[in-house]
Specification:
By secondary structure, this protein is α+β, with helices and mostly antiparallel strands. The chain is 33% helix and 22% strand.
Length: 132
């Protein structure tokens, strides 16, 4: 039985997806995606499944997400799901569909926080000057 494990990242959120043959069930942190959280993050997580149509009904996907906020977790899970589907089916056509729709389905978000710099309270903020 073929099983694929992939991961996706967004900001500080990390998602791990396990894709295996099944009946089309998708669970995020042991909760079915159909009843998971608010509507916008749920739609984000289901995008990779909706793009491939009927093929999504042949796999079960279990996603574990930690860290970050609601949307960061949703986008990390979305990347992990898309990568898992591409690796499971090993079909360049699916990869092409995902890349044309949105490149971030397959590529992690590389943006990170700037480090704090001297003479300030953060990366950009500086101490105010007073000329009296």
């Amino acid at each position: 039985m073929k099983t694929v494990v992939t991961s996706g990242k967004r900001k500080t959120a990390v998602a791990r997806a396990v894709v295996r043959p099944g009946k089309g069930r998708v669970r995020i942190n042991h909760i079915p995606v159909e009843i998971y959280g608010a509507e916008l993050p749920r739609v984000k997580m289901m995008e990779p499944l909706l793009l491939i149509g009927e093929k999504a009904k042949h796999v079960d996907i279990d996603v574990t997400v930690r860290g970050g906020g609601v949307m960061g977790q949703a986008e990390a899970a979305r990347t992990a799901i898309a990568r898992g589907i591409v690796r499971f089916f090993d079909d360049p056509e699916i990869e092409k569909i995902y890349k044309e729709y949105d490149r971030t389905l397959l590529v992690n978000d590389v943006r990170r926080k700037l480090p704090k710099l001297p003479l300030g309270r953060g990366a950009r903020k500086r101490k105010q000057k007073s000329y009296r």
